[in-house]
Design a protein that fits this description.
Elements: H1 2-21, H2 51-58, E1 61-65, E2 76-77, E3 80-81, H3 104-109, H4 122-132, E4 136-142, H5 168-178, E5 182-188, H6 205-228, E6 234-238, H7 243-246, H8 249-262, E7 267-268, E8 293-297, E9 312-316, H9 337-348, E10 352-358, H10 368-384, E11 402-407, E12 410-415, E13 423-429, E14 435-441, E15 447-453, E16 462-468, E17 479-486
Parallel strand pairs: 1-4, 1-10, 4-5, 5-6, 6-7, 8-9, 9-10
Antiparallel strand pairs: 2-3, 11-12, 12-17, 13-16, 14-15, 14-17, 15-16
Helix pairs in contact: 4-5, 4-10, 6-8
Length: about 500
């Protein structure tokens, strides 16, 4: 029996290590039962109350844009797909296997000589994002290939060496700011072709000296970005999972402090660094390392309790794992507008932001499928945004009909599963001091009848309020019922318990 327990504990330990290795988890986080000394733990409080963090909590919907040299091949080369040879379209430089082109790495590293996106129109991107309803966006300054889309003075591998030459990051930041959209910058620490980068921790003095040079280079670029684009709201870090970076916990701790001192109000996700015990996202005491959970990548929590009250966002692709541009979407399930709206409302119902990814092509044009989704999401948001922006989780029993959100005295139910009897039944605790008293459809402003339905189930802690939907109301997408909270006309009756 002892051996079985040991094996089970070892398995759980390996699972938790695996979940934290690449910044991913798939269930509720296991909190330590005893606190340990942590010198390089959180720098900011768990629940910041400053204006920048409050704005983050209220965004609701955001846009991610993955753009770089990988947009030129579009996940294939000379008609041969890299789907089975590369982890994702933006990872195509790592293409291996029998279908990989000869000298592929060299070919890829020279793609910058072709990078001249003549259709790139950052103002059109920003307008599309605004029309879609995005309140913030995350833009890739450089991905794992190390190619910088701004004129960095710390590397020759940057946009000034490409035919395009102009500062793409500045063009994007300026265009989105002009539309009133907050900008966050994606920054990959990992650089595949940097000779000073180490995956494993340096083993000797010479290796440490080289890696120290890389660390200083990384610091220089981050401060350069803050100086060039002072309106940005935060950094979205990636490529921080290798042991060399993990072992540099003192450097990364001090770097975070310096970045925050340089840019008060800066927002940094939990993926940036780890403590001295190697724990990423959350330190060895389970306290978040950063301002919000950054591990919800292509996944959503099942329940709000999984989040332990942390701020968070979910970044989501349209194809299953396509971040950068993919020419060919055939044979892949691509998320529909209804899929995305469902995930959006599930996210905001648990106090998160939902961030939809776009991968423009090598000329700077969005995929036609992305254009279609942006238009349809925008059409829906124009009617229903009130249920998305600045809302909070509602502590009510889960509804089979859809998702609840709340703002002030207003309760919103976004209905994805319309009841066949046209009665939207709202479960409320019997002792609730406030219940739904009025209701209206956001789609057309029509007032709806609200009835108390005390159905008298034994041991049921809830009572019910029925919102009557008009039979002639038609909708081919999810729709929102807006209800106003008020005092109940009477407290639910105290019934005699059923005797057995």
């Amino acid at each position: 029996m002892k051996n079985i327990v040991k094996i089970a504990l070892l398995g759980m330990s390996c699972l938790l290590m695996s979940q934290q290795s690449f910044g991913q988890w798939t269930g509720p986080k296991v909190k330590p039962t005893e606190r340990v000394d942590v010198k390089y733990g959180p720098i900011t409080p768990k629940h910041r109350t400053d204006a920048d963090m409050e704005a983050f909590r209220n965004y609701g919907l955001g846009q991610f844009i993955h753009w770089g040299l990988y947009a030129i091949p579009g996940n294939e080369w000379e008609g041969v797909s890299a789907r089975k040879g590369a982890a994702a379209s933006e990872w195509i430089r790592t293409w291996k296997g029998p279908n990989a082109p000869k000298d592929w790495t060299t070919i890829y590293d020279n793609l910058y000589k072709q990078f001249n996106p003549k259709s790139f129109d950052p103002k059109a991107w920003a307008k599309q994002a605004k029309d879609m309803g995005a309140k913030y966006m995350i833009f890739t300054t450089k991905h794992h290939d190390g190619f910088a889309l701004w004129p960095t003075k710390y590397s020759d591998y940057n946009i000034t060496k490409a035919p395009y030459k102009k500062d793409i990051v500045k063009e994007v930041v300026d265009a989105y700011n002009a539309e009133g959209i907050d900008v966050y910058l994606y920054f990959s620490v990992l650089e595949w072709n940097n000779p000073d980068y180490f995956y494993k921790a340096p083993q000797n003095e010479a290796e440490q000296k080289k890696y120290d040079k890389f660390l200083q280079y990384t610091k220089n670029q981050l401060f350069e970005l803050l100086e060039k684009y002072p309106t940005i709201k935060g950094f979205w870090f990636d490529g921080t999972w290798d042991q060399a970076w993990i072992k540099s916990y003192e450097f990364t701790y001090n770097l975070e402090k310096e970045l925050r001192a340089k840019h008060p109000g800066l927002i940094i996700g939990s993926r940036f660094r780890n403590d001295e015990h190697g724990k990423r996202h959350f330190d060895s005491n389970g306290d978040i390392l950063g301002d919000y959970e950054q591990g919800w990548e292509r996944k959503l929590p099942k329940d709000v309790s999984w989040l332990d009250g942390n701020d968070w966002d979910a970044v989501m692709t349209i194809p299953p794992n396509g971040w950068g541009y993919m020419k060919d979407w055939s044979g892949l399930y691509t998320k529909t507008t209804d899929d995305i709206l469902d995930m959006l409302m599930q996210t905001v119902s648990m106090n998160g932001n939902f961030v939809l990814n776009f991968g423009p092509d090598g000329q700077g044009k969005m995929h036609p499928g992305e254009d279609k989704l942006a238009t349809e999401i925008g059409d829906w948001m124009k009617v229903n945004a009130e249920a998305v922006y600045g809302v909070r989780h509602v502590d009510l029993p889960t509804s089979k009909l859809g998702y609840y959100t709340q703002k002030d005295k207003n309760l919103y139910l976004t209905v994805f599963n319309r009841p066949v009897n046209n009665i939207a039944r709202i479960a409320v605790p019997k002792n609730a001091k406030e219940v739904p008293v009025t209701a209206v459809l956001l789609a057309n402003g029509q007032q709806l009848e609200v009835k108390h339905a005390d159905i008298g189930l034994d041991l049921d802690k809830n009572t019910y309020y029925d919102v009557i939907l008009p039979k002639d109301f038609q909708s081919d997408r999810a729709f929102v019922i807006k209800m106003e909270w008020g005092a109940p006309e009477k407290v639910a009756d105290k019934l005699m318990d059923a005797k057995m």
